[in-house]
Write a structure and sequence with these properties.
The radius of gyration is 28 Å and the shape is elongated. It is α/β, with parallel strands linked by helices. It is 36% helix and 25% strand. A nine-stranded mixed beta sheet has the order 14-15-16-13-9-12-11-10-17. Strands 18, 19, 20, 21, 22, 23, 24, 25 and 26 form a nine-stranded mixed beta sheet that branches.
């Protein structure tokens, strides 16, 4: 299928939109009338702009309030149509999209509607043009693609065909099987959009919450697969209305559009899953200067980590506990140094184990995810990497090379004291904070690149505003990332972004098999727990029927608790490290969430401490 995008999907001037769309790799574009009306250049110049960018205009849209108008308005409607045809010829497209009438003056008489389309078809054919009829989910008389298809069949004109909009079909829960009755020769154009599952009127849902395929919950794979089964090979065009997209850069949204269609068509093809299978987080890398590294090292020791190895040629130290590898990079030049200069001590990269790093890198290239490389020294491994959230890196570490990398590039440190192991076993998940407007983009990044599933989004109450949270996880749960964003300016997420100078990792969760034993060891190591108020435990006992003795132990160590149908989840938090990030210790018992019920308690507790980022001015 031919991939296209409507200009309404991205922001900026029409010239900016077209450049971004072409740079993202699209060869077809829908010109939205509002973009054309706001453009200072004549239509003929816009047509030239399209050709200069290597773009073909797949359609001009929308032509509104056409069919079934009363006799006193009919002549004016056809005058408007002729003007649309003039514009189409200058743009170089032969297709206009007619959306079902929403005017209160429109009449629902079927014979009148059929006659209108026959005359419009005659006028279009006389100029070598075509008309596509689309059923809007909120149309006055026609809201269902089956109704629109019945009209097109009865009109029976070679210049009149059907336009499908996946959102209008799926928002009304029209059966996907009904697509199989459509003649592909009469299907002139298909628009696709995803959306979250919401209970609201279709017009508001459409105007504000459409999103790219893969970012929402609609069954687009089944929808497009049904079209392929009937033999449709025409244009598949994105039509997205979303306030968040209009706040982003045209270039980024256009790339997301191409990425989403690439991923959608892969799934429709029913080939094996081409996404990267992440076996586990192999390492987390912190950038830091020498002073920060000393502070961070002290905090890691209170968590039971020990410095075990030093890079043979660089100021890079490896800290270990269980299967967890933390890298503290103090090099005075290179990527980590640049990252530290901008953000201060922080997570600059993660390394994930994969079977084939070069295949993972090729997957990223196909999705237009930027790769990263820097010079490596003698005897060092060149580990493929791509850009991630906030300009950080994700390294693809070959499972077969892991032992050799650690053994070759690092040398053991002499241990003067026993390791303070606190029972932390593995990385459970990372939480990344970002601008609210960025969340859908990074969600698509993860679900298209890695073999992960997304959780339903959740709204969490910060004491000063709402935070939107959504997680992705690998099928075996060994790779998990939580995405957090907030439109409110004073939430902890917003304050983190302000202090951190951008998006990044705000918390790191480590898993233990016995949180009470771990908590006792952490106390001996002088770890500073985040303090949880006693009222929380009074409520917790009533909610879950926990024994008083268990509640007392939880309160002693500031341990929180949640459970779902699968099992339970104990977790506790450290104080924040220099206003940038904090650690979480978790124990899962067949529980698949992230303690969202307790997030408001954690946020309120964190807001009481001075080591939080300052309020945003």
């Amino acid at each position: 299928m031919l991939r296209s995008i409507a200009t309404i999907c991205v922001n900026g001037t029409l010239r900016t939109k077209l450049r971004a769309i072409a740079d993202a790799g699209f060869e077809h574009v829908e010109i939205f009338e509002s973009d054309l009306l706001a453009c200072p250049e004549p239509v003929a110049v816009v047509g030239a702009m399209l050709r200069d960018q290597g773009l073909a205009c797949a359609a001009f849209q929308p032509f509104r309030d056409f069919e079934g108008m009363p006799a006193r308005l009919r002549a004016r409607v056809f005058d408007r149509a002729e003007r649309k045809f003039d514009v189409m010829e200058e743009l170089g497209t032969d297709l206009v999209l007619v959306s079902s009438n929403v005017s209160p003056e429109s009449l629902g008489e079927r014979g009148r509607i059929v006659d209108d389309f026959r005359e419009l078809g005659d006028r279009a054919a006389a100029r070598g043009l075509r008309v596509g009829f689309e059923a809007l989910a909120w149309g006055r008389h026609i809201q269902d693609h089956r109704q629109a298809w019945d009209i097109v069949r009865e009109v029976n004109h070679p210049a009149v065909g059907l336009v499908l909009d996946s959102f209008s079909s799926l928002a009304r829960k029209e059966p996907i099987d009904s697509l199989r009755s459509i003649d592909p020769a009469k299907l002139f154009h298909v628009q696709v959009a995803d959306a979250p599952s919401l209970s609201m009127d279709p017009l508001s849902w459409s105007r504000h919450f459409r999103c790219m395929p893969g970012q929402g919950d609609l069954p687009l794979v089944e929808y497009v697969a049904a079209l392929r089964e009937i033999g449709y090979q025409g244009v598949l065009s994105l039509e997205i209305f979303n306030d968040r997209f209009l706040a982003g850069s045209a270039a980024d949204v256009a790339v997301d559009g191409m990425r989403s269609l690439t991923y959608l068509l892969e799934r429709v093809s029913q080939h094996s899953d081409r996404r990267v299978q992440c076996q586990r987080v192999e390492f987390i890398e912190f950038s830091a200067n020498e002073e920060e590294a000393a502070q961070l090292g002290h905090m890691l020791q209170t968590l039971g980590f020990a410095p075990t190895d030093r890079h043979r040629r660089k100021a890079v130290t490896r800290w270990r506990q269980g299967d967890i590898n933390l890298i503290v990079n103090c090099e005075p030049e290179g990527f980590a140094h640049s990252y530290d200069t901008v953000h201060g001590a922080s997570v600059c990269a993660i390394g994930v184990r994969v079977a084939d790093p070069l295949a993972a890198l090729e997957r990223a290239r196909r999705l237009q995810i930027s790769s990263f490389s820097q010079p490596v020294g003698p005897g060092e491994f060149e580990i493929p990497a791509v850009r991630g959230v906030g300009g950080s890196l994700i390294y693809f570490v070959a499972d077969a090379d892991v032992d050799a990398i650690w053994r070759t590039e690092f040398e053991p440190l002499a241990q003067s004291v026993p390791s303070p192991d606190a029972g932390l076993r593995r990385v459970d998940h990372l939480a990344q904070s970002m601008q609210y407007e960025e969340m859908l983009s990074w969600l698509l990044y993860y679900v298209a690149l890695f073999q992960v599933d997304k959780s339903p989004p959740a709204e969490i109450a910060d004491p000063v505003g709402l935070v939107l949270s959504q997680a992705v996880r690998s099928p075996d749960g060994r790779f998990r990332v939580v995405l957090n964003g907030s439109a409110a300016t004073q939430t902890l997420v917003a304050r983190f972004l302000h202090a951190y100078a951008g998006a990044g990792v705000q918390s790191i969760a480590f898993a233990t098999d016995d949180i009470f034993d771990t908590a006792a060891k952490l106390r001996q190591l002088d770890m500073e727990f985040l303090s949880i108020p006693p009222n929380y435990y009074d409520d917790l006992g009533a909610r879950y029927g926990l024994d008083d003795a268990v509640l007392e132990r939880m309160a002693e160590f500031n341990i929180l608790y949640d459970e779902d149908a699968g099992g339970g989840y104990h977790h506790l938090y450290t104080r924040a490290f220099v206003k940038r990030f904090f650690f979480e210790i978790v124990q899962r018992r067949a529980y698949d969430g992230y303690g969202a019920r307790n997030t408001a308690i954690r946020l309120a507790a964190q807001s009481r401490f001075k080591n939080l980022p300052p309020a945003v001015p």
